[in-house]
Amino acid sequence: MKSLARILLVAAGLGMAVVGNGALAATECNTGPPPATPLSGTLVGGVVVNAGDFCVLAGANVSGGVQVNNGGILIVCASVINGGVITNGALGILLGPEEISCPGNVINGAVTISNTGPGVFPGGAIHLDRK
Predict the structure, then answer these.
(1) Structural domain boundaries enclosing 26
(2) What's the domain count of the chain?
(3) CB–CB of 86/65 below 8 Å?
(4) Each residue of 51-88: pLDDT tens digit?
């Protein structure tokens, strides 16, 4: 029960970071699968990946966190995310996997991944590069 309460608290915090005080709206990311041009640069207000969207962040500096909704796919390389990452029901998440020559990331905030998979990537749905 404490775990559920903690997850809800993180989700509420991320939601407030994305839309609190009339802040800028989250950037919807749907770059398409590689070799599509990834989203990069400074992204204020957070990033959201919706159902059916394929998002690649490469060299991005995100403030406001990243949220992957049910059915979304996210790959993050060489990026800084301030505000954490939260996913529920994503098809796949890759955060800095060396297998695809993707440099690691800096994530300032909680990482909450639930109900993700069975995945669209070889070897599993989730890869966290923990160096």
Answers:
(1) 2-128
(2) 1
(3) yes
(4) 999 999 999 999 999 999 999 999 999 999 999 999 99
